[in-house]
Structures
1.
Amino acid sequence: MYNQEQAKPFMIERIVAALTYPTTGIIGVIWLVLGMITKSAPRKFTLYHIYQSIFLSLAFVIIDYLFRILVNMLAVVPILNRIIAQLLFWFNMPVFLGYSIVQVVIYAVVIYLTITAFIGLYSYIPFVSDNIKQILK
């Protein structure tokens, strides 16, 4: 017989896990709050995807801020400012259906995570998934 951790996730759990990624974890936080109100503990599958979406969202914001600070600091250097301006132009230039390279990569990762969560699989992102698994043990 299956125990709770090996059992296939219910459809509602898969939907919540899938919706946490495009909403940057907001649906997951709402699900956790509802679980606290109803005094029901979410299963590991749902917690895994909720924590991973929140961690990835926070990591993205922190990396974005650090990158902006670094670019602003390097923009003062005479030769580097032109090189950085050119790199930023190439990475932010629309190349695929009006989206830049950076946007395409971010959307591809979010779509991958959403689909894997919806079909009931544990998605894997190096470093992030390993840390989430350690938290849930």
2.
Amino acid sequence: MTSLPTHTEKKLGLVIDLDICVGCHACVTACKGWNTQNYGAPLADQDAYGADPVGSFLNRIHSYEVQPEKGPAQLVHFPKSCLHCDDAPCVTVCPTGASYKRVEDGIVLVNEDDCIGCGLCAWACPYGAREMDPVEKVMKKCTLCVDRIYNENLPEEDREPACVRTCPTGARAFGDLSDPESAVSKQVAARGGMDLMPEQGTKPVNKYLPPRPRDEPLDVLGPLLANVAEEPKGFLGWLDKTLEKLG
């Protein structure tokens, strides 16, 4: 089985703001595009518009309707990918060492040349964040776009995960969560960033910022609208009274 490092020099990860994610799937599309043509084997995508589509994704969006104790129901869009856990069970269960956690930045990766497709890591991950590629028969997962963030051939502003770069609302941020002075750490501290399923003891690096409370909906047009419950007049008034007598 594979061992985890006792420490990592950085903890690179994502901070996802559930308050402003609109569920547009731009991050899913960008992730699929970048990871199909760069790091590792391409992500399968066969018969996408047919009766039996087959493919794999490293990032997915789930949408839930949540009813707070007070106020109206909220629609929460919940992006999910590998959380690059400090105590990653997907690494320790791997029989070949294909799954590993990097000391220099804490990113969890899969060496696809050593992956035998046994699926143990997917079974061990409590988040369902790994997928067996149905064509390549190797395990696929979020790499934090490791081939982007260190790529000196890209402009500085592009050296971040594709999902972060493409998010139209700024709901995703990337940085070193071991540095309390980093922008992502300050976000987590200010908004009460949360671990996903902390009871699992995996110590995920990625954090989620909770949705803010919503005010009661304000009907700004109500006072300007005519009262529709006025007493009917003319023929309709006579008909209404006649029907009442017949009833």
3.
Amino acid sequence: MDISVVVPLYNEEESLIELHQWIESSLSDANYSFELIFIDDGSSDNSWEIINDLSIKNQNINGYRFAKNYGKSQALNAGFQYAKGKYIATLDADLQDSPEELPSMINMLNEEKLDLVSGWKKTRHDSLFLKNIPSKLFNFAARIVSGIKLHDFNCGIKVYKKNVVKTIDVSGEMHRYIPVLASQAGFKRISEKEVKHQIRKYGVTKFGAERFINGFLDLLTLWFLNQFGKRPMHFFGLLGTFMFIIGISFILYLGIDKLYFNINSRLITDRPQFFIALVTIIIGVQFFISGFIGELLLRQRKNQKNYIISEITSSEGN
């Protein structure tokens, strides 16, 4: 098996047959053997019925249906788990990503000995203010934080070597940062290829403006996990120590001042420095407790799926 094409989808019934034909034509013309993996993320339309019909007619098509809508990250993670090809490709189901780009991306992967090739939608057919400008800001921030020189981190069309997707864990809403996850796992050979962005033919986008806010928050999470994920006490302990130093410093100041300089002055508990010392020491203790809890969770964490498969297409089930 040369290529596994993973397609996460949610309510894309209008585009699935055309997408299947487009993928089959593009990869067959390039003489690649392939499998097509549809991950139905709890669609409420007829997407699953269409996938099941396609899989009955073509044994190279496998479908997996989530019990509910878990999100694109969980759909990709499931697809990566079931993929069997030497190379793994991802496409969005809305026909805005062209499967015709995949053969050249695979060639680039081999010729330049890369781990991952990400698409770059240099020219986008989206709203300027709702998508284009926020996307540029988002990608600029991702480049600064991650150090990876990509123009489009969240492009749906990507090609990976098999060991990359079998190593990384895509959870939460981290599908935007798969190149960052791959780099953190040790797969540093990452590049991009300019791809065509098609005008959306059917339906509407399933993502709202809140995805950009969530994206920036996820980026901060990735940065923190990369820096301190394996040693949370180093982060929380440092902050706790800093708070303790401030608190102890004020306590020493109040004690020395009361014993040697202002013996008959007002009570220590009436002075604002006392409350500063008290608050900073309490905060320091909380930071240390957070660090200890983080270390305990890190040691007890077990691998578990973040989704439930409710149905599998007939061809895969047999």
4.
Amino acid sequence: MEKQFFWSRTKRTLRLVTEKKDGTIIRRTIGPTAIEVATLLLFLLVVAVICKFIYDSITIRDARKTIIEQTAALNDLTDENEALTVENSTLSNKVAVLSEAVSKKAEAEDVLSQETIENALPKGFPLSGSATMTEAEEGDPMLIFSASSGINVLTTGTGTVEVVDADEIYGTKIIIDHGNGYRSVYRNGGTALVKQGESLGKGYILFSIGKDNQELGYQIMLNEEYIDPMTMIEING
């Protein structure tokens, strides 16, 4: 079977001639309308391909631009993250140093607080030198010291002068409030060397012992009750 195509330019038709093995000839004619439709479809297909190519080109260009911008942004974020990591490390070191400093300060304050509490307890010896000591036989618990001239009567702990007043037996009475429920009482015939309201440290001079005031009556109160001074007093030597 042979096929032959013939194109008629004048009529714009397409003839298809087919010869079979038995010699029969078959002629088919494609009219101008079908050719125009096919041409239009082909044109539309070419236009569609071109538009698709242009669209893909624009899309690829925009995608590349977006990738470049995202890459730049990622690099900026990476640099910023590295900078923040370094800054965080620096701040962590500073925090560690400050924490250590605060811890040391807290320890120092705790030690100081303990020393303050300890110093406020009336545990010291009430005289600057040696003296004979007896315990009062009657009345509230009291230690009676007899000292030589030149020796001073001292505060046995830090506190505030609460009372400076006359004493019926000894002449003058000084009461020190230690701020922890304790009060120390000093009875002597000398002139008081402190005034009411004064804040005193441990070992401050309250009286100076002379020939006329060699005896000291010493007492300790806890929560308004007299206690035995021997349970508190520290005697060295």
